[in-house]
Each structure stands twice: as structure tokens, then as C-alpha cells.
Amino acid sequence: xxxxxxxxxxxxxxxxxxxILVVACAFLIVAFALYQNHRIISESQQRIFILAGxxxxxxxxxxxxxxxxxxxxxxxxxxxxxxxxxxPDEKVISANITRALYLADASAKKQFDNLKEGGYYSSLISGxxxxxxxxxxxxxxxxxxxxxxxxxxxxKLIRTTSITTRSLVTEGYLxxxxxxxxxxxxxxxxxWMVLExxxxxxxxx
Length: 205
What we know:
Layout (H helix, E strand, L loop, with lengths): L1 H44 L1 E6 L2 E6 L3 H21 L5 H12 L4 H12 L2 H7 L3 E12 L5 E12 L3 E15 L10 E18 L1
Antiparallel strand pairs: 1-2, 3-4, 4-5, 5-6
């Protein structure tokens, strides 16, 4: 009698232990499946397909903080190329400066107004002078906001008889703004200053 009771108790314990193990394994399987599902969904959301020339090209999205240095340097480069790349044509000058001023605040407009009042653009047109800029380096400090930058490069003034090369050093700060067609990187240059802009050499053509 007691032996049968003991056997029943042992069997019950074994069945209970087995049931607990089965339930625990089921929970682990469900948890793993949910984790894998979440990971796959996250990876799929980071994939972007761009249609170009009839072909679907795959791209990957990333947090903006990962791209700040790259985007900031490109923003500064674009601004300087638009502001300092000029031809002896009033419409070209106006178009480039207008695009450049979308990327900066009133400090850039002030520089433009000073150059215009000083007759700089008029002298480019009357002298058939083209101006080009080559950016050598752009340093960005992303450890403090707004982001400080320092840009160094060279300007070339191309005349009929000569080419004058000037050094160019500027600095300013970058503030986050909404992205738009006129400002694709979503930065605005503030407190922009030209620190150096002097002749280095003049070569005959």
C-alpha cells in the first residue's frame, strides 16, 4: 500500500518536473522567436531601395549622429564653392550667391553686401575675371554644439593675361535646421568670418 503511494508520488513529481521543463522550453522558444522577429524587422527598416535608371539600388539608413562630420564638411564645402566660384556674368553670380545664402545666416549676407558695395562683383564682370575655389581642408568640432568649423583653401582669379592665387581661411559654426531642397544637409552656417584672403602668387597665362 505504502509502496504504491510512494510510486504515485514519485511519478507525479516526475510528471510535474517534465511539465515545467516543457513550459520553460516553450517560453524560451517564444522569446527567441520574438527577438529574431524584432531584429529582422529592424534590419529591413534600415534598407532603402532607390530607383535609378530603371534599376533598384539598395541603400542603408543610419542615424544622423553617425554622419554629422561627413555631412557637415560637405555642407561647408558646398557653401564655399557656391560663394567663391564666380564668372563674369551677373546672372551666374546672382544664382550662385542666392544658393549659397540658403546655407548660411545673415553673416554671409553681410559679407556679400560688403563685397557688392565695394564693387568687387562689378570688377569681375568688367574685367572678364573668373573666380574658382579649391578647398584644402575642413575641420569640424562635433564635441560641442553648435559645431565649430575652420575651412582652408585657395582662390584662383583667372584673367585674360594672368592667374592670381589667394589663400582662403574662414571659420564659423553649424546649427541644425530642417532639411529642404535648398538645404539638403539640414545645417545653417552662423557667425561666418573670412580670416585670411591674401595673394600668394600671380602667374602669366
